[in-house]
TrEMBL record:
Cofactors that this protein relies on: FMN
Annotated ranges, domain Flavodoxin-like: 15-177
Lineage top rank: taxon: Eukaryota
Lineage: Eukaryota, Viridiplantae, Prasinodermophyta, Prasinodermophyceae, Prasinodermales
Name of the protein this chain belongs to: Flavodoxin-like domain-containing protein
Family: Belongs to the flavodoxin family.
GO molecular function: FMN binding
Entry annotated with the keyword NAD: no
Record's keyword terms, sorted: Electron transport, Flavoprotein, FMN, Transport
Amino acid sequence: PISQSPALSTELNSVGVYYSTSTGNTETVCGYICEEIGAEMVDIGDAEDSEIASHDTLIVGAPTWHTGADEQRSGTSWDDWLYDTLPNVELEGKKVAIFGVGDQASYADNFCDAAGELYDLFSAKGCTIIGKTSTDGYDHEESKAVVDDQFVGLMCDEDNQDDLSEDRAKAWVEQLKGEGM
């Protein structure tokens, strides 16, 4: 049997939570999410393809480091995984929820751009993206994580709005449950 240890298992749904981090902010936000769903986080650089493919729903999160880049925007293990590994993992039809961490004051023109890259590539792979959120309450200029006037998932700013991250994560997890996670 496939080990379900790093995930939340319900009768019908297995959730895997994958992230990567540069300064620890993405890991902090990932911790808030995992606390709400009772799952363990796995750094995408340490993840097994078969384990990832075994889940019904994936929650994936990345920071934005290479601002303005067209690809490999996170500056983390995601950069290689998205282009070298994702094309070879069977994920068609799976639900994917995305979270991003950025700095909307210092990088107002590229807020959470790496989350947009996750959205583009998981969507192109045939995944169903769940958990889109409003841009209300954020103070940024541009973001590649905005599609149809909504964020592609949960966006957090541990530099300027760290006091909001935990409540945002709790509300988002409730939203995901309502969207079939």
